[in-house]
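Retro notes, item 3 of 5
We never archived the inputs for the adenosine-5'-triphosphate complex last cycle. Fixing that now. Sequence and ligand:
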Amino acid sequence: MNHITRKLGIIGDGQLGRMLAQAANPLGIICAAINPSDGMVRCPLTGRELGHGVRTLISESELLTFESEHIPLVMAEQLMHELPLAPSTRSLVAMGDRLGERALLGRHNIPCAAWRECHCADDVRLAEETLGYPLYLKRSHGGYDGRGQWRLTAPGELPADLLEAMAHGVTILAEAHVPFVRELSILAARGREGQMVFYPLVENSHHDGILHVTIAPAPGAEHWQQTANDWIRAVAEDLDHVGMLAIELFDTGSALLVNELAPRVHNSGHWSQRGASHSQFENHVRAVCGLPLQPPQVNGITVMLNVIGEQPVPALAHAPGVQYYWYCKAPRAARKLGHINLHGHDYASLLAQVEALKPLAGPTLTTTLAIAGQRLTTLSR
Ligand code: ATP
Ligand code: MG
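Structure as it came back at the time:
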């Protein structure tokens, strides 16, 4: 290798960019991140302001990546004329839009829930008739953490904000309900020469459309691993994707269906900071900077708990065994503010760790701990 990248620019300045910068640091790679809304460029580790605008990001970088598929495409296109961008805008376009994802899955015969494209009330009516209830209506572009979604449970008047969105040209993906027994996800990294490394399937628990708990590896999901690996490889190769990517999955007990795709590091991969030899953040940095990927060696069981909407008490960071990540974001209801990784070698010991955190939790973390506790109770029987 002639040249090792020393300066990586990140489009997006949220927690994913911050954790990419944390993983880049030991590799000798310094990051700068741009906030796509106000154009401010900062050091993701210190928050120090480096300047303003895309020219500052370009002067601070040798190559670029992004932390979110919701960045403005025009900004990504402008930047890629100046510096190499990985993943490319092909991945951004294909996985930044639910209809784009459906086209991609269709090309590879990868199954997902029955769906229809909607632009007006008549389209939604037709979707109700053909797909039944509950019916999920999702903005094709720009939704996250359950935002930009409607769930219809019976015939009746359509929500005013849904009608308004469609009147303003928003395309809606209508999706049939999937009677899943659990949700899983698969994550992998692909390098510039097409080499890939795969993380084990993990089990995800959502509440109000937001991820609360990940258990890694997913208990009893080994029989799905090869299928999931094949699907993520097909998607990555189709787009010549470079970097981490994720597929969210529904496990119905007898079938595996795709929910959605993400062309980046993913919340359900945060466990890898504790439970794998090489985290998703490190492998993303390695992939985009052209360093060899490291197959993750997984040790024990990791439980990842999101801290959502509330400031945790300081004692939480000091609790024995806790790996604590705080994103330094202003608290707001339903906002992901941090996460905790717990690690163990059996479900009973992880259940004990979850129970020990309960006296330290506010209302939302109490819900998260209850979800984790319930699942671990079942698993430890
Ligand atoms: P995120 O960005 O956090 O992944 P999102 O806003 O992109 O979320 P989805 O992943 O589409 O939204 O949906 C959020 C959750 O809602 C899913 O993880 C699942 O729990 C539930 N859900 C979504 N679609 C369906 C469906 N068709 N059938 C059953 N449950 C669904
Ligand atoms: Mg999702």
